[in-house]
């Protein structure tokens, strides 16, 4: 995964609160760290209302969640990754993490989902969490699954 794969990245700030803190070059670095293949991705930061609407309409769950990934192709890495700023900020505070550490984790998590990783079973979750921890360590972040 140390290889820099070709990446077309669009970043949308429908909710602009994090625009200055989580700027495009930083986001690109985090996305690139999790890529296993060339990709075409969009990261979109939304508020709780839009996050809830998307989660309800596409997953049947009527609440805003931290990250949603919408992959569009099984052979290519093409996806939209939606991050809910309200949930991201609240979770970082609740978990005693920096905004950057939590955002990096969710972006890596979303990028792995875009590449087909899941966590529906314990085995899948173990594989995905191990990979996330390895990627985040290379980026200088602590393992998000270990208690502080």
What is the residue-averaged pLDDT?
A: 95
CATH class bucket: Alpha Beta
Main sheet attributes: strand count, strand direction, barrel closure: 4 strands, mixed
Spatial strand arrangement across the major sheet: 1-2-4-3
Low-confidence stretches: none
Task: Report the sheet-strand fraction.
Answer: 15-25%
Q: Which structural category do the helix and sheet elements fall into? A: alpha/beta
Contiguous helical run count: 5
The number of strands is 4
Structure in words:
It is a single chain. By secondary structure, this protein is α/β, with parallel strands linked by helices. It has one domain: Metalloproteases ("zincins"), catalytic domain (Collagenase (Catalytic Domain), 3-Layer(aba) Sandwich). The chain contains five helices and four strands, in the order βαβαββααα. A four-stranded mixed beta sheet has the order 1-2-4-3.
Search tags:
four-stranded mixed beta sheet; globular; single chain; 5 helices; 45% helix; Collagenase (Catalytic Domain); alpha/beta; 148 residues
